UniProtKB/TrEMBL annotation:
Alpha/beta hydrolase fold-3 domain segment(s): 350-497, 666-734
A cellular component annotation (GO) from this entry: cytosol
Position of the signal peptide: none
Catalysis: reaction(s): 1,2-di-(9Z-octadecenoyl)-glycerol + (9Z)-octadecenoate + H(+) = 1,2,3-tri-(9Z-octadecenoyl)-glycerol + H2O; 2,3-di-(9Z)-octadecenoyl-sn-glycerol + H2O = 2-(9Z-octadecenoyl)-glycerol + (9Z)-octadecenoate + H(+); a triacylglycerol + H2O = a diacylglycerol + a fatty acid + H(+); 2-(5Z,8Z,11Z,14Z-eicosatetraenoyl)-glycerol + H2O = glycerol + (5Z,8Z,11Z,14Z)-eicosatetraenoate + H(+)
Bias-annotated ranges (Polar residues): 588-604, 742-752
InterPro entries in UniProt: AB_hydrolase_3, AB_hydrolase_fold, HSL_N, Lipase_GDXG_HIS_AS, Lipase_GDXG_put_SER_AS
Active site: S428
Region entry Disordered, spans: 586-610, 734-754
Protein name in UniProt: Hormone-sensitive lipase
Molecular function in Gene Ontology: monoacylglycerol lipase activity; sterol ester esterase activity; triacylglycerol lipase activity
Native species: Oreochromis niloticus (Nile tilapia)
Amino acid sequence: MDTKAVFAALYGVCEENAAFFSGGAKGSQGDAARRLVEAMKQIQEHAHSLEPVISGFANVYHHFDFDPHIPANGYRSLVKVVRCCLLHIIHKGRYITANRRSIFFRAAHNAGEMEAYCNALCQLRALLYLAQRMLHDNSHGNLFFQDESGLSESFVREYASMHKGCFYGRCLGFQFTPAIRPFLQTIAIGLVAFGENYKRHQSGIGVAASSFFTSGKYAIDPELRGTEFDRITQNLDVHFWKTFWNITETEVLSSLASMTSTQVKVNRALSVPPATFDLPLAANHRASVTIAPPSAHIGTAPVQMRLISYDLREGQDSETLLSLSRSEGGAISLSLGLKTKRLPSSPCLLIHFHGGGFVAQTSKSHEPYLKSWSQDLGVPILSVDYSLAPEAPFPRALEECFYAYCWALRNHHLLGWTGEKVCLAGDSAGGNLCVTTSMRAAAFGVRMPDGIVAAYPATLLTAYASPSRLLTLMDPLLPLSVLSRCLSAYAGSGPQTEKQVEKVSTLSLVRRDTALLLRDFRQGASNWIHSLLDSTRASASTSTAPEAPTEATDAVRKSISEANISSPHTDPPVPTDLSEFPNRKLSVKSQTCQNLGSHNNPIPSSAPLLSERAPEDVSFFFAKDEDPSVITDLSSVAIPPPAGEEGSQQEHPREFPLGFEPLRSEQLAEMKVESSPVVKDPFCSPLLAPDSMLKGLPPVHIVACALDPMLDDSVMFAKRLRNIDQPVTLEFAPSSHRTHPQSHGSTASWNGPTGVCQHLQGKPVLSLLAPLREES
C-alpha cells in the first residue's frame, strides 16, 4: 500500500467511525463514544500534517543510503515506524467498524486503544519535525549533527520532557512483527516489576517472588505499565540496567541455555595472568614489540576469556591450558571421554567480543550462538570477558581485548589453532572493540586480523543527534536515557559505585516481604476484577509522582582515559625502515598497556586530545560536488528552526512550529549532555578516526538493523571506509528473517543482537566468515 492509499484509508475509517459514534449515546457508552470521536479527529489532524512530510521523505531518503542495494538509514526507519503506526490505526479502525454494533463490543477499551495510538502518532509527528530540522542543519550527505550543542542538545532536552509512556503501554512493539510483541510485553512487564522491587530487598528470593506478584497489575493495566516504564528509564542509574541485563548470567538461566544449545567438546573459561611478552612486528619478524598487561583504572589483573570448540583439537587439553582454566562452579566444561578424537589444529580462529553497552554481560550470555558458530565453521572461538564499566571505564576494555588478541597470536598452539587466519567478530559494544582493537594492532605494527564482522557496531559514542537515534524515544530496550548512561559510564563520567541500601534484619525483611506480597496480590486481584466488571473504567493516568533524583553525577574522572590519552600521537610510531636494526627488539611500550596507565609521568593537561587537534582528514562529508537536483529535493523537505512568538521570553528556543506541541511527561529526567573529551578519542569513537588510522584496517563486514538506534553509526562508518577505498560490505538484515531479541531494536521482524547472530548462523555466516571456512 503506497503512501496516498495509506492516508486515504486512514481518513476513510476515521471519518466513518467518527460519524457513527457522534449519534449522541448516553451514559457510559456515551463517554466512550465521545472519547472515540475525539481520538478520530485528532488522528486526522495529525495525519493531514504528516502526509506531505512522509511523501517528502520518501523522495529524498535514498540519498543517504550506503548504496542503491542497501536501503537503510535513519530517515527510512522513521518513515517506516510512522507507516506502521498508521497501519495499526487503520486495522483497529476497521475492527471497530466491523464490531461496533455487537453486544460484546467494548467501547471504553477500544477508545483507550485509539487514544494510545493517537498519542503515539503525535509523538512521531514531533520526531519527524526534528528529522526535518536535521535535513536543514546537517551538512550535505551527513546523518549526524556534528556537535553536542544545537540540535543535539535540543533533542536531549525534548527527550527528557516528552511523554514516552504511550510507546510502552498499549502500543508496545507496534513497529515490530506481531510474533515478537508478546515477548516484548513479557520483557517490559518483567522490567517494571523488577524496577519496582529494585533495592527493596536484600535476598534474591525476595526480589524474584515480589516481582512475580507485582507483575500482574502491569499485565492487565497497560497505561500503568507505560508510566512505570517511563519512570524507570528516566530515573534509575546504570547499575540497575547492569543488574537487569545480567539476569541471563544467573545460574538457572545459563544452565538452561547450555542444556538446549549445541553440545561442544571444549567450553573452558580461562584466566590469563598479566604477564609482559613480546610479539614480532608484521613488517619485520626479526624485530619485536613489547606487549604489557592492561593496567588502566584497576591495575594489573588476569584477563578473562572463554575457549569454545565443537571438536577437541591439539593443544586444547594441554597441561598449560588447563592450568589457566578457572572454575565456574558448574559442570566440567572440557569433555574428554576415553574415545574422544583429537583433531589437528584448525588453520583458523575466531576471536569474539560480546556486546552489552560496555556495562553488562559476559561470554556466558552469548555462549549458545557461539557454540553453533563453532560447529558450523569448524573452528575454535575465543571470547573475551573484558572488564565492564563503570568500575572499569575506557580504555580498560580496549586494553584487555588488545592484550587477549596479542596473547592468542603468541599462544595459538594452546587454542587448537595453527596461527594462520584469524577473524574478529562482535555485536554492539563488541563491534566497536573489534574495530578499535584492529586500529590498535595497526598502531603497534603487529599482525592484523584477516577480517572483521561487526553487528550493529557503536562507532560514535558522542551525543550527536541522528535520525536513527530519534528512535530511542520508543525503543523498548535501549531508550536514550539508558544509552546515555551506558556511554557516560564507559567514558568515565558516570558514578562508579552504586548507592548503598540501608541494611535491615532478616526478620524485618521477611515481615516486609510478606506484607508487600499480600498488598501487591490484593491490588493485582482488585485491578483484574474491576477490569472485567467496570466497562467504563477510565484510562489510568499517564504518569505518577516522579522520584526525586538523589545521585549527583560525578565529575569526569581525570584519569588515564582522559588526561593521558592527550598525546599528539595516540600510539607510539613504529619505524617504517626496520632494516637498520635487523635483530634488535624494539622496546616500544604499548600506550594501551603502559603510557595510558602511567600516573608517574603524566602528560600535561594542556596537551589536546587527538580528536580536538582537528585530524587532517576526518570528515563526514562524502559528496565532493553537490548535485543541484539533490539540494532542491532536500530543501523541499527540510525546515529551519521555527520562529518564536513575539514578546515571549523562553529559556530555550521553540523546537516545533506554532500550533503544535508534543505530549509532555510528568516524569521529567535530569538529562545533561556530558561533553567528555574521552568519547571523541578515535579509539573510543572510530567514526572520528582520521583516514590514516582507518586505512590499515582489514576487510570489514557490517550487519545493520533497521530499527536499531545505532543504525546510522553503521551506515556512516561503512561510508567512511568506502570513501578511503577500504574493503567494506554492509548487510541490512532483511525483515523476512524470523529472529528473537536481546538488546537493540530492529525491523518488523526483530533484528537485535541475538537476532543478527541468528541471521549470521544461517548461510550468511558461511559467506561472511568464508576466509575461515575455506581452509578449515
